[in-house]
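Read as chain and fold; for instance:
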Amino acid sequence: MKATVFLGGGRITSALASGLRLAKYDAPVVVYDRHPQKLRQLKKLYGVDTERDLHRAVERAKLLVIAVRPASVDALLREIGKIDCPLAAVSLAAGIPLANLRSALGPQVRWARAMPSPACRSRRGLTALVFDRSFPVAAKREVKALFAKVGTVLEIPDGKFDAFTATHSCSHGYHALATLASEARKLGLDRRTALTAAAHALADGIVAWREGSIGLETLLDEAATPGGIAAATQKAVDRAGYSRAVAAGLAAGMNRARRNAKLA
């Protein structure tokens, strides 16, 4: 039976396999990787089928998911060679545009890109998708349905993909949580209390915005009462260059994506 085949058994494949298992996804999932230990772990944790032979894995694919690092994409596609039957392929490699992928496996292969969040592990992820113009309609529905199993799906233009990638990573939240909790501990809070306070500071506000109908500016004004502690904290953070730091981080992410594009 044809399957969704992941080429690469790393972190994002693990996250997606976890989310799909939670979603009770019942279609066949096959993972190829050069490292048998990764395959054993994925099979044990998530019940996926595994394959150590690249070409056998590709032959089993109804949908082929390229899940290796950007620097490894070119070598992997060269090793696969030309495919002589119709196949839908999705690249998870950050920064590598559709233009670099179209001819890689031959004209029978139609390409899409996906950028899922590791939060797909708990089915709370966000995935951006972009499809080549020739991508089959039925296959597009299948790809959207696959990623919808593990969170929200957005379809965006290929030219906006790098900006989305730099912005949507859950690392922003983890970094903010770690930083806020660390500074709170310096004020005397124990680790557990500091993490709890920081987590609620970040998550509660975001959930209130996502699940409510009140605009972000209104919520921000409500939370930071003039003359209050929150307002003083917010102003000090802004004066210290919070916006500049975020801008620098996003710019670095965009530059990394552009360098990745040159790898393929």
User: Anything to note?
Assistant: Strands lie at 3-7, 29-32, 49-51, 61-66, 87-91, 109-116, 125-131, 151-155. The two ends are 31 Å apart (CA to CA). The CA atoms of residues 63 and 142 lie 9 Å apart.
